[in-house]
Amino acid sequence: MRKIFLFITIFLLILQSLVFAQENYTINDIFSLALKRAEKVKIAEENITISKEGTYKALSALLPTVTAFGKYTEYSKEKLFNNQIIQPDRSKIWGITIEEKLSLGGKEFTAYAVARDSLIKTEHDVNSFKEQYLLKVSQDLYTYLKAKKNS
Fold this sequence. Notes:
By secondary structure, the protein is an alpha+beta fold. The chain contains 4 helices and 4 strands; from the N terminus they run αααββββα. Strands 1-4 form a two-stranded antiparallel ribbon. The protein has a two-stranded antiparallel sheet with strand order 2-3.
């Protein structure tokens, strides 16, 4: 019985301290907290990252491909025939190739333009979603304040 009474007393003290420790928030504080803590907003912002990666992928088709190669061979000994070398004691071959592949129809440029436009659209969609979310937050806040005033 004594343990229950002690538990209820501690619980009431903690509850009372929480009631007196209320913070006052401005509308800007509420909006910034809502945007920081909303999982749906974070998911929408991830769509921007995905669109950026799509733009980088489309851009990569426009960039040239650079390839470097090399070969080193060492033979057991140098071979001569009529004082001419027919097999050296070692051989080195190296080189660099640069390739650019573009289609005549310009599909790479079109794909890049579409990816870039998709990124812009995604950014607008995320901003629109945030505005709708903040409108819902402001409506809920208004309802809460109205109910608090009437009670």
